[in-house]
Amino acid sequence: MIKDAYGETLKHFSVKVRRQAGPNAKPYWENFRVEYESDMNVISVLQKIAAMSKTADGRTTTPVAWDCGCLEEVCGACTMVINGRVRQSCSALVDRLLGDSKEITLEPMSKFPVVRDLVVDRSRLFHNLKRVKAWVPVDTYYDMGPGPLQPRSQQEENYPLSECMSCGCCLEACPQFTKVEVKRQANETDEQFEARKAAAYDTAFLGPHAISQAMLFNNHPTGKNIADERLEALSGPGGIQVCGNAQNCVAVCPKHIPLTTSIGRAGRAVTLNKLRKWFGR
Amino acid sequence: MSKQRVVVVGGGLAGLSCTMKLCELGLDVDLISLVPVKRSHSVCAQGGINSCNDQTRQLGDSEWLHLDDTVYGGDFLQHQPPVKEMAMWGPKIIDLMDRLGVPFNRTGEGFIDRRRFGGTLYKRTAFAGATTGQQLLYALDEQVRRWEVEGRVKKYEHWDFLGPVLNDAGVCRGVVAQNLLTMEIRALPAEAVVIATGGPGLVYGRSTMSVMCTGSAASRCFQAGAKYANGEFIQVHPTAIPGADKLRLMSESARGEGGRVWVPRKPQDPRDPKAIPESERFYFLEERYPKYGNLVPRDIATREIFDVCVNEGLSVDKDRLCVYLDLTHIPASELDRKLGGILDIYQKFQGVDPRKTPMKIFPAVHYSMGGLWVDYQRHGDGGLVVGHPRNHQTNIPGLYAIGECDYQYHGANRLGANSLLSCIFSGLLVAPSIETLIKSTKRTAAEDATNLCEQARKDHQARHDAMLSRTGGNENPYLIHRELGDVMTKAATVVRRNDQLAAAYETVSELHERAKRCSLSDTGTWTNQNVAFTRSLLDMFPLAKTILKGALQRDECRGAHYKPEFAMPSLKADTPEGRRIEAEAWCDAFEANTARWLKSTIAVLDGDHPLLSYEDVDTSIIPPRPRLYGLVGAEEIDAVWKERSQRRAHESKLQPVG
């Protein structure tokens, strides 16, 4: 329970949302007055806003568009900037937010193109997983018996990296990961548009999440069979050399993934790989 | 001839395993999903995935016992051949997922570690911390991404499946889907369509399910003529964390790793739980079910928790129903290694550290055992004919259903850690069936169904436009959804009564009429979530009515479906002779009930209302038996039943079972 300035139990609180009707529209702020209940999170705030569709000054408006999924911080969908900090809206609890500030401010992530309101296009994030071949290159899905034995220590090293839910927090916080927005041209087919986007993404920074995934698979007994290909991607344009070592990524990761450790390992592996290539192995 | 394509709707474990296997078999896939597939609801599965394994095998386990546990746990309501086939594949599926890079927890020697789950006495469950579903999903997502790079999979993420396209002969030849960002509606011709869209949790408002689990895709197939089976069998998970927006799952693995459920013997004892001595704690599951303890199947644990709170008044809190789930006797380092993910969730949302303080939990709607009716081809060995086109086909030719949205594997109650198995298994199994189907198709859908698909697209476009331009009505879809959830949760969860079910059917029918008059607060043509939600709300009603009507008509208790009015009585006599007589009568009643009710409910839609019929269940491998789980006070029933089945076996010269 939160008390207001007069020691009374809070009845309403104010929510400020940065809205945008579409990719080419101008952003604007809209204020909402939301009825307080105990145990609310930002998801339930947005649900209430959708149900009332009225601004604080009583004007009818459209529901705020936002992404969400599991509501328990494992799917990564509901990432946004809340009171200036990037995080998942499901685990952003109202009581704690209002403890620090009188109102709640919601903004879309700034490193991805806005689709509408708080919905952003994170396809680049998934595209970068393709660039580093973040998979185990198995021969077949037929039954070939068990995989290789793995010591517990290796599982304990890999599991935290494998918890990355592609939420984008690390990318929002990274100074070197800058927005790439490819706007659709008139008379362009889907395929042409997708190809142009992919080309733009291919030379831009991979980001900490993709570097860490490359290290995850290079540390897997079968995954490492294509370790060199991943290191090639890490040393190409938009590769690991872009990282400025700001270490913001690891500070904002909701899963506490040791991203800077991964980046350090990737840096050393890339250097070794280059040396090996110079000396012809 | 143009290239043959398969449409897969849904990118969870079932949809992705199916997609990657189809690619391996040389077929190209259009993969439609409401969310980027890596964010599918499978990520919420926590505890693990079951299979017989090298260690349990040496303790007497086998695939047959996994089959037996599954059908006993499901109260015999599932056809046994598909379950047998699944149990046989179990060890191979774990091996495959291991090869795909799933970071399963390891023993000191480096083998895959296992834990025990509900409804079994063996440690069959492989796990990756307490985020096993997430880890399995990611491994499959990575494989599908690999095929995507090779141009074999085209993903339609943020797309909503609007319905199957059927030709005049009633054969499925494609789908119509809508891009929820641009709102473009498009038809995709396909040789076969696979529905892998999970459960209908949102019919209950709040549940452990993700927001996209509306059941709308299954409902759209149901409305197009597909049969829906055993809708009334909804699993209520015993342990969840209540919340305003969602009831968050607290995995069964917490009990699998030694977690104990208890309440203070003194109602609403105000003391710190750690200060309450053992003798003043009521470990009700352990006392009533000494053989299985805290790992009785979910339907039983849920009813016991509900009963101890509601009927015995022993809820921990006065104003909120809950019991303790206690892990505090286990070292924190071990908890972190095996259960880290779920403990973090509890701490994040409740602000209390479950390593130090017992958690407060209560049951919540979790899983649908029922779903789209699907077929199978039985093999002479009791399993399935792999590659037969009937496997997982709905009654609409060319339309398949797999994963939670089919009704095939879990009967009246699903065992924990069997859903991940059934999802991956059904995905891998259906792919060769589709391969066989397609080999016999002469012309591709792209060649002969273009006009058909275009007409279907136009129809959906017109419906969509009509919805946007609808005026008046003024009903609010979000508020109607809340009312629907309240009605369903009250009438059709743990305890069901005919008067309440009948009244709920009326109320839901009224809500359905009101929902048709919803006015949209957003009539825009770009990323309109309002129209998508309202449409899926309308599609919840056929399923809600099917659940209610199925529950109303089924006058018995079976697995998750519990009606006190039709419960089998417990033994009351205090002499051995008296108890013997009661046990004989009990077994007679059990046999009569089996003859009357061991049948799947099959619903078809007639206008706005479901029509029900009943289908016999193939129990040819393991004969049905009373499901007591070693309940204290029910020993005589077990004894009488054993004598009867031995007598029967002797008469028919068969091996006794059970």
Q: Span between N and C termini of chain B?
A: 55 Å
**Might you state the CATH topology name of the largest domain in chain B?**
FAD/NAD(P)-binding domain
Quick one: overall form of chain B?
globular
Distance between the first and last residues' Cα of chain A = 65 Å
Q: What's the number of extended β-strand segments of chain B?
A: 21
Rg over CA atoms of chain A: 22 Å
CATH class of the largest domain in chain A: Mainly Alpha
For CATH, the homologous superfamily of the largest domain in chain B is named as FAD/NAD(P)-binding domain
What is the ordering of alpha helices and beta strands of chain A?
Answer: EEHEEHEEEHHHHHHHH
Strand order of the largest sheet of chain A: 2-1-5-3-4
Largest sheet of chain B: 6 strands, antiparallel
Counting DSSP E segments of at least 2 residues, the number of strands of chain A comes to 7
Kindly report the spatial arrangement of strands forming the biggest sheet of chain B.
13-12-17-16-14-15
CATH architecture of the largest domain in chain B: 3-Layer(bba) Sandwich
Proportion of residues in extended strands of chain A? 5-15%
